[in-house]
Design brief:
With 235 residues, this protein is mainly α. The protein is 72% helix and 2% strand.
Length: 235
């Protein structure tokens, strides 16, 4: 079994079968969903953080900062749910608030690295991810539109179909043939872009990796040997 077969969203190596499977269309829906959602999440996150920071000098700003953390977590959870069909479940691991009260919630949430990773995904990575998704979708829909261009090329002023030209029936047929040949490979393009985006979301929005995980695993496997060494007297 290959690595691609073990993925939650496996990629078929046969271009035609890949094109007519559900994979490119699920990927298209994932990328399309980000285009309207991302600007809203970005704007609300930046606005909430800005207002809370400005009002932080007053008592009003403290509960607003707690609310801003909750808003960020809500958006991050939405992105986890959207990525699930492509990369599987994306669990969240936030620090529990140890005591009731605004100050305890404020300290816990804004000292939690998971909150800052959520902010990085929602704010810092918003421009590159939006550009990636939009560019891939333009290419994908251009190819799909060019396949059907012989039926409607006459309705477009000047005959332009994005990056393909169809000013007559003959050129539209040529464009359709070329686009039909490119479509299976563009299916890989849109699927790859969606998987890349979803893996970025899983890396940032999932539980952070423990830097001592490998050492802990080694100690758990060699526990008796380590304990024997520790009990020997030093000469």
């Amino acid at each position: 079994m290959s690595l691609t077969d073990r993925l939650p969203f496996p990629v078929d190596r046969r271009p035609l079968r890949m094109l007519f499977s559900r994979r490119p269309w699920v990927a298209t829906a994932y990328l399309l969903g980000y285009l309207p959602l991302a600007p809203v999440m970005f704007a609300l996150t930046v606005a909430a953080l800005a207002v809370s920071t400005v009002l932080n000098v007053t008592l009003i700003g403290l509960p607003l900062l707690v609310g801003a953390a909750g808003l960020v977590r809500g958006f991050a959870h939405l992105e986890r749910l959207r990525a699930r069909p492509l990369v599987g479940p994306v669990p969240a691991r936030y620090r529990p608030v140890p005591a009731p009260g605004v100050m305890s919630a404020l300290r816990t949430r804004w000292r939690d690295p998971s909150t800052w990773r959520d902010c990085a995904y929602l704010v810092v990575l918003f421009p590159p991810l939006l550009i990636l998704d939009a560019a891939v979708l333009i290419v994908w829909f251009s190819v799909l539109g060019s396949i059907t261009s012989p039926a409607w090329y006459w309705a477009v002023p000047g005959g332009g179909v994005l990056f393909m030209w169809s000013d007559s029936l003959a050129t539209s047929v040529v464009s359709a043939v070329v686009a039909a040949g490119l479509a299976p490979y563009c299916g890989y393009l849109v699927t790859g872009a969606a998987l890349l985006h979803a893996h970025v979301a899983r890396s940032l929005l999932g539980p952070g990796a423990d830097p001592l995980a490998e050492a802990k695993h080694m100690l758990s496997e060699n526990g008796p040997a380590v304990s024997d060494l520790s009990e020997r007297p030093i000469r």
